[in-house]
Amino acid sequence: MTKSVAVLYGGWSAEREVSLVSGKAVAVALRGRGHRVELIDVGRDLDALLRALRPAPDVVFNALHGKGGEDGTIQGVLDMLGLPYTHSGVRPSAIAMSKPATKQVVGSVGIRTARGVVAPPEQVAERHLMEPPYVVKPAAEGSSVGVRIVRANDNAPAIDLAGWGYGEALVEEYVPGRELTVGVMGDRALTVTEIAHTHAFFDYDAKYTEGHAVHTLPAQVPGDVSAEAMRLALLAHRTLGCRGISRTDFRWNDTRPGTEGLYFLEINTQPGFTPISLVPEQAKHIGVDFADLCEWLLEDAACGR
């Protein structure tokens, strides 16, 4: 059935450029399926957003990433308006955007995470809060924005205070090994992708610049590791109360026996929808093309209200 769809994209977070690409790709796919699609570049002007959402669309496709669009803020507005929207609601979105809160929640169901501590950036810049190597990341940002690995021989401060601007920092032990990720679609874990890249870790540029990362799917890892990663991704999705799709990232220390080296890093409640994004690629691997995935999310949004 043809629907009127408002695609929210852009926003004001550090992930604005990625969101613009995601939103445009979604709009093209949905228009190709016959839907009436309006692209809305979301800013901080709430009145402008409310005007853009009149008359009310049948469904809102939330293609925003990062703060304002993925942290429960826009979800709360859409809930107040009574509009069905894709992806997760207020609570799971807010929890997932906070890395420390997420670690607490998933840890409560036995999901292994790296040892970490939350601290003001000034304290992190002043001294080592744990023995290097360790990872410093914003406590509440997505797409590896602001992430840095601190090694034993580094002379520079762990945080450049002049360019930080992210609030509290999460200092986390560095887990050596390989990058794995698992997409979840509804009640199904899709597959495991291994990400190899030219950077020290899977940072923002590696994620969103074509040619900087190689995706291998299904990942060439032992069967028990693959099965456990998929189980944990689905468990994290359900424990947080996510809806629609999510993507959970792991580090796997392949020097440890069995699945002991598998560590949860984070869950993304609104993974990218760019041409090189991981979840659309995984969905295609199981026979769901990009337009089908967008269509499924519309139906899931309507059913989830």
UniProtKB/TrEMBL annotation:
It is found in: Cytoplasm. The keyword Transmembrane does not apply. Pathway: Cell wall biogenesis; peptidoglycan biosynthesis. Pfam families: Dala_Dala_lig_C (PF07478), Dala_Dala_lig_N (PF01820). Its main location: cytoplasm. GO terms for cellular component: cytoplasm. It catalyses: 2 D-alanine + ATP = D-alanyl-D-alanine + ADP + phosphate + H(+). The active site is at E15, S143, S277. Mg(2+) 2 binds at E266, N268. Keywords: ATP-binding, Cell shape, Cell wall biogenesis/degradation, Cytoplasm, Ligase, Magnesium, Manganese, Metal-binding, Nucleotide-binding, Peptidoglycan synthesis. It is an enzyme of class 6 (ligase). GO terms for molecular function: ATP binding; D-alanine-D-alanine ligase activity; metal ion binding. Cell wall formation. PANTHER family: D-ALANINE--D-ALANINE LIGASE (PTHR23132), D-ALANINE--D-ALANINE LIGASE B (PTHR23132:SF23). This is D-alanine--D-alanine ligase.
